[in-house]
Write a structure and sequence with these properties.
Strand content: 35-45%
Largest sheet: 3 strands, antiparallel
Shape: elongated
Radius of gyration: 16 Å
Number of strands: 3
Structural class: mainly beta
């Protein structure tokens, strides 16, 4: 059984189809926190079956 299958079997949905968690991604101009900056942020909310529910980016 794979990692994701184990997660799916361990956690049962409290309310099917409702958002359970979010994945957040950032794009930066580099790795130096002093000189570089964030240029893009994106988020995807997913339900307990890993189906995307909503997304946002700027």
């Amino acid at each position: 059984m794979g990692f994701l299958d184990n997660l799916r079997n361990r956690y049962t949905p409290r309310t099917p189809g409702k958002p359970v968690f979010a994945v957040i991604d950032t794009e930066t101009t580099g790795f130096n926190k002093r000189y570089d900056r964030i240029i893009e942020i994106a988020a995807v909310r997913a339900d307990s079956h890993f189906n995307p529910v909503d997304s946002w980016h700027t």
